[in-house]
Structures are given as C-alpha cells and as structure tokens.
Amino acid sequence: MKQLKIGASLLAPRAAQGGWRHPQAGSFIQQPLTYFTEVMQIAEQGKLDFMFLPDYYHIFATTPEELTAHSNVWLEPVTLLAAMSAVTTRIGLVATLSTTYHEPYHVARMIASLDQLSGGRAGWNIVTSRGETEAVNFSSGHRPTVAERDEHATQFIALVQALWRSWEPTAIVEDRLRGIFAHASQVHPMQHKSKWFAVEGPLNVAPSPQGAPVCMQAGKSPAFRARAVKNTEVLFTQLNDLQEAKAFYADVKQRATHPERVLILPGLQVIVSATEAEAQQKKRDYERFDTVALRIAKLMGLDMSGLTLATPLPKQATKDNEIYQTVLKVAQQKGLKTIGELYNHLTAQNSHLTLVGTAEQIADTMTQWLNEEAADGFIFIPHLLPIAMTEFVQQVIPVLQRRGVFRADYEGATLREHLALPLTTI
Ligand SMILES: Cc1cc2nc3c(=O)[nH]c(=O)nc-3n(C[C@H](O)[C@H](O)[C@H](O)COP(=O)(O)O)c2cc1C
User: Fold this and answer.
1) Does the model's pTM come out above 0.85?
2) 98 CA to middle of ligand 1, Å?
3) Is 425 annotated as ligand-binding?
4) Using an 8 Å Cβ cutoff, are 425 and 232 in contact?
C-alpha cells in the first residue's frame, strides 16, 4: 500500500501573529531548548519523516503596532536543528538556508555538518530570499538581482550537491597502521569558476551517511516546477483544492526524469477533536487571536480598536477609499457578513489545505489525496505548539497507521531512507 510522507514545521505561524497569546500556546523565549526538545520528541513519537524550520532574514512587523502585538523572533535553523539532533534519534532535520545570502561552500558545509551530527538525517530547504525587507540586512556586494536569482540558485544548488559528493563514500579509511586517513584518489575538487562562483573544493566535511543530504524547495508556479524537478527531491507547496492538486501533481511528475524521486508535499493545517462540532468550536477559539484578519480591517481603513473576527462588516461604504469600496463590494456579492468570513474568503485561494474535524475525517482526506495522486504526503503546519503537534500525533497518526498508510515505526535510520529516496541526488 502507498505510504504517506509526513514532515512538519517547527514553528507555528499563527503563534507568530496573535496566536502567542492563546492560553495553550507554548513559549520558547525563556527556555528554547526545553520547548523545542518537547516538540521534536512528540513528532518523533509520531514517526514523522522530518521537522523543518522555515526561515526569513528579517522581522515581519512593518509598523510599531505589529512589533507590539506579534512575535517577531525565532531561532537560526542550523543552530537549532544541530541542538535537536542531540535529543532525537530518527526524525529528519531540514534547515532553510538562502542561496542569496550565503556562499555554496557555507551551505554545503553547514548542512553536511548537521548531517554528520545526526547520522544522516539532514535536509536543506532551499530559498532564494526575494524580499527587499531581507536585502536591507546585508551589506551590498556582488549579489544577483531578483531577475537573476533563479539562474544563480540553479548553479548554487549544483555546487552544493557537488561539494557533498566531493568525497566518495569509501574515501575515508582511517587506517592507523598504514597511516592512511583517506584515499586521495577518491577526493574530487571541482575547480569551478563561473559568472557567480569560484569554488575549488573539496569540502572539509566527511561524506554523508545518506549519500547526500535531501534537498527541498517551496513554490507553486510553472517556472518553479520546471526548475525544481531538476535538483530538488521534496517540493513543498500550497494547495487546497483536490482537482488543482491532482493537476499540479501530474504536471510535476511528468516533468521529472525520475518521478518517484520528486515528492510533492502540500502544507496541511489540522484542527482535530472528538466531534466535528467540537473541532469547529476549537477553530473559532484559535481565531480569537488571529490578527491577520485584522489586517484586512486595517487595509480597509477601519478603526481596529475592539475589532474581532466576529465583528460585522459595515453594510454601506462609509469611506472614500478604493480598496475599502472594492472589498466591501466583494463581501456583499458573496453574502459575507463578518470580518472573519471576509478573511476566510480572501485567503481561500491562498492558503494551505485546512482540515477541521475528527481524526477519521482528517485521515480520510489525507488518504484520498494520496490515493488519487494529489500528494505524496504533507507538511503539517501546527496552529499552536506544542498542543497541535500532540493532538496530531495522538489522534490522527494512529488512524493513518491502522489504515496502513503511515509507518508504525521507522524502517531506516536516515532521512533519505524515511522518504524512500535513492542514495543519489537527482
Ligand atoms: C509553502 C511555501 C513556503 C515557503 N516558505 C518560505 C520560507 O520559509 N522562506 C522563504 O524565504 N521563502 C519561502 N517561500 C518562497 C519560496 O522559497 C519561493 O521563493 C517562491 O515560492 C517562488 O516560487 P514561485 O515561482 O512558485 O512563486 C515559500 C513558498 C511556499 C509556496
């Protein structure tokens, strides 16, 4: 039977906005090691394939109000995941690093070191950091423009993967008697020089226990798909409609030389409870602190003080503001009555698959997406941590295991083994 691959995010995006105020939201400010260890260990009890850390090189707040009301801090991924490698034994560890603000040698070395420390459990989530809000945090230098970034990233990724392969798996022998540490003939510098890069190699980290760390990349557009199938093994994407997901899946797989070596994992949000009504109630409870919705009010120029998702939308346009008029017109056409309904409508096209219901119902949809070739699995994005991870692992995972679509225990030791990917990178 086909098996789901399930990764998860080690950050709860909603908590970063208003969700940190929720009574059940954990905090990593005082004791990050304790907090993240707990989340990782719960995920590992659930036999998840990997945990990953999204990353950006800026804070998200653009106004003093957002700086006041939102959490804008987290931890650097490789540092955090290196610590997590010491408190876990099997789960994969996927760190985000940008091709724009690093050199290939840095990235290859950091991820390879994480891979060594964890016994072959590391992955690299590749991002190109397009935002101006990130650029302002770095000294200007010889850096690609946004238009050049994809070409730059493609070469960057090839160099990182070549550095990971610069020592053959059997190169290091540590023969003390004969004084042979490594077979020099099995170590391969790349002597690379091109428009962007000068990398002589080889890497100064031993070869990977899993052949090479796993490469992941997030995106959706056709241009992204065309690029990513050539150098990426896990595609993280955002899809919430089954038909659209099937079309995306078919398109990516037909572009890939080895379709089974490119896994498609859409983001998944889950609110699970014993009954559907309870789960819906829980969703409303989470949304109490959802200040994203309030940004819409800001956009419309409404007074935000005292606004909640349940606040009714004004019946008539009272402001001479173009966005306000347009948004209100959409709301009226669709019969939307509250700020929350408007928010749900505006984000419906642009959000991860969100399943609210019982564990059986959630498992039904996950299995349907697997069986109908809409996904190879999912990246679970918890609303709040650690509570949402605990609920997912204790309630949804056992149902998937009973149905035989998710592992009862890890079959192997490395991330590549969990994902059933061959030793070679694509
Ligand atoms: C689900 C998802 C998650 C992403 N996470 C990040 C991230 O953590 N950091 C980042 O810099 N970019 C992130 N991105 C942006 C992508 O790295 C990439 O720049 C963008 O999706 C380009 O692909 P496109 O051509 O499909 O837009 C994410 C994109 C998607 C779809």
Assistant:
1) yes
2) 11
3) no
4) no
